[in-house]
């Protein structure tokens, strides 16, 4: 993996091309001090798209979508994360990247750079896939065209999801064929921040994305999905080892090129408001999952049940068993220093006097959608301080700006293996569901540096393969940690895992899409109104109007999923 920040200076052209309007490139005035679009080097266009796509993936899958699929919960500024309290959400960041990528494709055609065109087709598929997965119908066929041939495409029509998914699949098939037959010699390796110009890696990426999207449409277009998945499986050209995961590392030199919760750039507040969700933590602990210690930290101060206590609970913490008079809690940095020095902090309570039980485990998460999450487990410092000594934080590695484990993961071998496992349960000719399922777990454990725990983990009663789709998708959901969007899309398609909303949720069911954003509502209202009219609405979100997060897009209409 190349250090992508090294390309900052050469990205200026690509950044300029990601302009906010839909103007034709032919109509842009020439800048005498810049590089003309007609002289642009296709290599220089790639990093902006690749970096932007990777950052979008993490910013969704580690942030609020992680709350949707209940990987994490927040105990401060939590309503969007825990309760799906969303307003209109714009997609301008995606279409900005898509405009730059469209220029990459067009410029590649102009200069005969077929391999670069295939890269552009792959990234186009990835980005449009995210747009339609998240929002539903969207501009596609006539998007990115601007004004040309006396036609104005500044307010393009919205294509149906069916059209978009079919287009994505065709573009990926075309890209895969080019990668298989065309030299990558014209690719300057340091500009290809994913693979350094490795043609085989690019073809595996394209084919693995095909597996993702064939499975996505498998209930709506089985006649397309089944032969497509079987053909890729028979080719053997897809991700098969965790070392092949499509990832982007972080440099950590500034807030913009660092992991999103880097404490060095936000004083740790973003890091500290994220807590493990019990939905995820409880089954991991029950199955002695070796990833727990990587992803989460033990509580700073552990509750101890003590029925000899004559009061409901200790007023102060105990250090190595000794009451610290006057000390209700310590700050995060103090706890880190003291615990690293070998000290153990506890607090005793008597459930008979208190009237209910507290969570006394070493690892403690937050239940889903609490009305007051900061007060959970009798936190002595509730509110926006984000200091809950009795609930686990996520792992210390997520405080850092960069680390070998801190990578944006666009698609993984674990995901591909679980895709094939599910396909096998559908009766597709793709080998053994059990083998693919176990390969998915192996790949995920390898990704997080705990491969040595595989034998003990796979032997756990809740993990040993039982042949059910629920088990496959549960392990796939766990493995999607920090890349949670795929877990959301799987849940939407299958209803698995069986997520339950919490008491603070606006509705008693999970959301299934992002509402269209204000830019579209204000400037392309006729088209967005037509697209909203194609959503399947219900009593959920009715007070918001039809453009809400509970209105079902085409991909799940008629499936009775997820609710």
TrEMBL record:
UniProt keyword terms in alphabetical order: Lipoprotein
SUPFAM superfamilies to which the protein is assigned, alphabetical: TPR-like
Protein name per its UniProtKB record: SusD/RagB family nutrient-binding outer membrane lipoprotein
Domain of life, source organism: Bacteria
PROSITE patterns according to UniProt: PROKAR_LIPOPROTEIN
Tagged with keyword Metal-binding: no
Database matches in InterPro entries: SusD-like_2 (IPR041662), TPR-like_helical_dom_sf (IPR011990)
Organism expressing this protein natively: Algoriphagus oliviformis
Keyword Protein transport: no
Pfam families the record matches: SusD-like_2 (PF12771)
């Amino acid at each position: 993996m190349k250090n992508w920040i090294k390309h900052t200076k050469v990205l200026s052209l690509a950044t300029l091309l990601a302009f906010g309007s839909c103007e034709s490139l032919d109509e842009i005035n020439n800048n005498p001090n810049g590089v003309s679009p007609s002289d642009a080097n296709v290599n220089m266009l790639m990093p902006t798209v690749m970096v932007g796509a990777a950052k979008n993936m993490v910013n969704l899958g580690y942030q609020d979508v992680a709350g949707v699929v209940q990987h994490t919960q927040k105990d401060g500024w939590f309503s969007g994360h825990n309760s799906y309290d969303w307003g209109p959400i714009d997609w301008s960041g995606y279409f900005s990247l898509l405009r730059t990528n469209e220029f990459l494709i067009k410029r590649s055609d102009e200069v005969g750079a077929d391999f670069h065109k295939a890269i552009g087709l792959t990234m186009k598929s990835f980005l449009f896939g995210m747009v339609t997965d998240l929002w539903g119908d969207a501009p596609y066929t006539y998007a990115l065209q601007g004004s040309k041939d006396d036609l104005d495409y500044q307010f393009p029509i919205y294509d149906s999801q069916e059209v978009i998914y079919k287009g994505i699949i065709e573009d990926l098939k075309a890209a895969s064929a080019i990668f298989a037959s065309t030299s990558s010699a014209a690719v300057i390796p340091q500009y290809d921040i994913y693979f350094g110009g490795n043609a085989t890696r690019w073809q595996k990426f394209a084919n693995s994305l095909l597996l993702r999207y064939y499975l996505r449409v498998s209930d709506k277009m089985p006649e397309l999905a089944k032969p497509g998945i079987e053909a890729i499986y028979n080719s053997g050209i897809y991700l098969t080892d965790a070392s092949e995961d499509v990832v982007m590392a972080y440099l950590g030199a500034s807030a913009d090129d660092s992991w999103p919760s880097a404490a060095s750039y936000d004083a740790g507040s973003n890091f500290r408001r994220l807590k493990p969700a019990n939905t995820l933590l409880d089954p991991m602990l029950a199955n002695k999952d070796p990833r727990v210690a990587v992803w989460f930290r033990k509580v700073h101060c552990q509750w101890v049940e003590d029925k000899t206590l004559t009061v409901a609970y200790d007023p102060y913490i105990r250090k190595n068993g000794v009451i610290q008079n006057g000390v209700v809690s310590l700050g995060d940095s103090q706890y880190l220093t003291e615990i690293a020095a070998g000290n153990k902090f506890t607090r005793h309570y008597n459930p008979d006097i208190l009237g209910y039980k507290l969570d006394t485990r070493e690892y403690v998460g937050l239940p889903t959608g609490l009305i007051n999450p900061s007060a959970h487990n009798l936190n002595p410092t509730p509110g926006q301080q984000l200091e809950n000594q009795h609930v686990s934080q996520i792992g210390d590695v997520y405080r850092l700006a960069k680390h070998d484990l801190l990578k944006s993961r666009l698609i993984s071998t674990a995901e591909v293996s679980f895709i094939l496992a599910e396909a096998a349960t559908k009766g597709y000719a793709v080998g053994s569901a059990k083998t693919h399922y176990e390969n998915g777990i192996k790949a995920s454990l390898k990704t997080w540096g705990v491969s040595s725990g595989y034998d003990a983990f796979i032997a756990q009663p809740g993990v040993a393969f039982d042949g059910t789709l629920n088990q496959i998708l549960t392990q796939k959901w766990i493995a999607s940690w920090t890349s949670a969007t795929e877990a959301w899309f799987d849940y939407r398609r299958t209803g698995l895992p069986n997520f339950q909303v919490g008491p603070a949720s606006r509705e008693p069911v999970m959301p299934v899409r992002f509402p269209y954003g204000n830019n579209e509502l204000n400037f392309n209202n006729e088209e967005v109104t037509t697209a909203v009219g194609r959503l399947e609405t219900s009593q959920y979100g009715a007070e918001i109007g039809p453009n809400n997060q509970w209105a079902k897009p085409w991909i799940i209409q008629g499936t009775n999923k997820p609710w």
